[in-house]
Specification:
The protein is mostly helical. It folds into two domains: 1-32; 35-118, Winged helix-like DNA-binding domain superfamily/Winged helix DNA-binding domain (Arc Repressor Mutant, subunit A, Orthogonal Bundle), CATH 1.10.10.10. The protein has helices spanning 5-30, 37-46, 53-60, 64-76, 98-118, 124-142, 145-150; strands spanning 51-52, 80-85, 88-96. It has a three-stranded antiparallel β-sheet with strand order 1-3-2. Helix 2 packs across helix 4 and helix 3 (53-60) packs across helix 4 (64-76). The relative contact order is 0.10.
Length: 157
């Protein structure tokens, strides 16, 4: 079974439109917070468990120097800690502090509440169907060559 070119083109447009909408929603919800979208992304992935900084950069699709600046900022705010990897002294491991875990929990609660508000006209079934479709789309895209190069993006959800 194959997707028609017009359908694929429309889907690409819808994905980019969704990305823009999500960025706008995220920007609006961040006003007055010290942790921007990029730093929240780092927190989210570090929140999945202690990881090497290089692996984190790959998953986030950023360069090592960019990630290093993000980690330094989060470390300054008390949200993450770095330590030398005991298996490879050249590598660093990054983990959330208790304060970082609390910040991440707070961010996720805010996002959940905002999305519930935005989707107040939706039925539970609509939301579940959309989540299922987005998960299927994400899984298909993960299998692309570029996604494989970036590594897995598993979540706890």
């Amino acid at each position: 079974m194959s997707v028609a070119p017009d359908t694929a083109a429309d889907l690409v447009y819808q994905i980019f439109d969704l990305q823009r909408a999500v960025r706008c929603v995220a920007a609006a919800s961040l006003r007055g917070q010290e942790t921007g979208v990029a730093l929240q992304g780092v927190l989210r992935f570090v929140g999945e468990g202690e990881t090497r900084a290089t692996r984190l950069a790959e998953r986030l699709g950023v360069s090592a120097p960019v990630l290093s600046r993000h980690i330094a900022e989060l470390e300054e705010q008390g949200y993450v800690i770095r330590r030398q990897d005991p298996d490879d002294g050249r590598a660093q491991l990054v983990a959330l502090t208790a304060e970082g875990a609390e910040k991440l929990r707070h961010i996720e609660e805010q996002r959940t509440a905002a999305l519930q508000d935005y989707l107040r006209e939706w039925s539970q079934e609509d939301a579940e169907d959309t989540a299922k479709t987005l998960k299927k789309l994400t899984e298909s895209l993960k299998h692309s060559a570029r996604a494989k190069a970036a590594g897995p993006t598993t979540t706890n959800h």
